């Protein structure tokens, strides 16, 4: 068994046995917070395949853990500038962090003072920001948490009113940080889409109409076959996403839409029970819908891909 497969099995067992474990407990018991931290900084020094295995399992159970923003994006940003103290804190799960990418807010840096606002940011105790060609760390003057449709993925508005910053380095690595975030999210989406397919297949086998399982009806067969094709194609796209920006753009577009379709068809196969509050199907649709806006919507990823393939517009 390969390391990603072993890690996948460990994470699945842990999440199944301790669904209410905190991020600190998860980091301590499984070591996921330091997965991408270089070995010289005390981490596991793993790569994209291991990252994707963990993210897929987290997406499968709609985990609220801040893996994407903290263990992937913040760690990558900190590693790019050799911030050993940050890597140590993030790697053992002592703190969490979020990363603000260029264009995510209206920010300006005057000397070492940061002013402006970020309307939507993923949850994290520390805030790392790419602004005016630099990577900085700053403490928001005000943090307002939003009530979100997907309650498992908190968002906040961050306001900075002339706050002092800690300069960490330049912004040369920001596209890599973004692409790894997109890759981790794509793997999460594959995990969620696979779970939707599994739920739909299980219901189609168990639910009977006219004396036979509804899965024997041609219309249901076609739905499930179409979703299977989408999930497997999304898995291939997610596996390639961490290679460079082109593959990340492909995965950002395809995996997002595949998850939306899988979540919607899961509800359709379940029928009336699929839209009830008690059934988990609606939670996957909410996660898929909110994920579709995280790191920009599918059409924005396609526009980035088009610029690479066809060149900038004349």
UniProtKB/TrEMBL annotation:
**What UniProt keywords are attached to this protein's entry?**
FAD, Flavoprotein, Oxidoreductase
SUPFAM superfamilies found in the cross-reference section = Acyl-CoA dehydrogenase C-terminal domain-like, Acyl-CoA dehydrogenase NM domain-like
- Positions the record marks as coiled coil are none
Per its Swiss-Prot or TrEMBL entry, what cofactor is needed?
FAD
Against Pfam families, the record matches this protein to:
Acyl-CoA_dh_1, Acyl-CoA_dh_N
Q: Which Gene3D superfamilies match?
A: Acyl-CoA dehydrogenase/oxidase, N-terminal domain, Butyryl-CoA Dehydrogenase, subunit A, domain 3
Which InterPro entries has this protein been placed in? AcylCo_DH-like_C, AcylCo_DH/oxidase_C, AcylCoA_DH/ox_N, AcylCoA_DH/ox_N_sf, AcylCoA_DH/oxidase_NM_dom_sf
Q: Where is the Acyl-CoA dehydrogenase/oxidase N-terminal domain?
A: 21-74
In what residue span(s) does the Acyl-CoA dehydrogenase/oxidase C-terminal domain sit? 184-292
Classify the source by domain of life. Bacteria
Gene Ontology terms for molecular function? acyl-CoA dehydrogenase activity; flavin adenine dinucleotide binding
The UniProt similarity line reads: Belongs to the acyl-CoA dehydrogenase family.
Q: State the name under which the record lists this protein.
A: Alkylation response protein AidB-like acyl-CoA dehydrogenase
Give the organism the record lists: Nonomuraea polychroma
Lineage of the organism: Bacteria, Bacillati, Actinomycetota, Actinomycetes, Streptosporangiales
